[in-house]
Structure prediction request, 278 residues.
Amino acid sequence: MTNESLLVAENVIVDYPIKGIGNKPFRALREVSIDVRPGETVGLVGESGSGKTTLGRAVLGLAPVTGGSIRFEGKEISKASPRERRALSKDIQVVFQDPYTSLNPSLTIEQTLTEPMRVAKISAKEASRRVTELLDQVGMPSNTLGRLPREFSGGQRQRIAIARALALNPKLIVCDEPVSALDLSTQARVLDLFREVQEETGVAYLFVSHDLTVVRHLSHRVAVMYQGEIVEYGDGDKVTSDPSHDYTKRLLLASPVADPGRQKVRREDRRALIDASK
Prediction:
């Protein structure tokens, strides 16, 4: 991991128009700045509506950037054309939240994994070799290739989605709540897979989640979003265990713990923080 940033978002503003004459647009992001270094995981955490997913979509070119800039390897990409975006897809990939809808149900796993390589004009022989390598990398058996997504569990589908994201050896993967639809034991295994893949390949992650305990497992740094702004940004261990902002403290206290006594205390502490902010 180097100190030179791979991705830099600076003072990013995203406005969404609201129907009706004279209605002001909704400002989803308010001058948000963040950076991701090569081989690093930056966790982006906040409740629903905080703007975290909008920032991820802006990086991917799926949300309109009204102001500010987004640079990848020093090149401005916030206004990239469709052709430029297709070229960027080799280096910037995404793993979506829902493993049940992110895979085309009519394509076999082999077709799903080779599709991005075919678009990139990689030879059939090289694509076949790469697919075998990808399945091994994400812990899926070779007999996976001829089967359809419906034959797999949620955790297995997410492994396949991760393999697809890795197909072109990207430098950055935007992970949009990639474990929130999975049960806790499967979540842990998929998070371990993300970590293993990063150690093997050096890929960087912008990891979007609503759960501080999830981003704690992976993130070198964590940015906390609230109402379209970053309210806390720093070392992952520090932000997820000893936060300074009241909103981050509320997020931390909202995470459940196994001990009923501790859970009761956490609920009371969180309620006190909420009451104090009113």
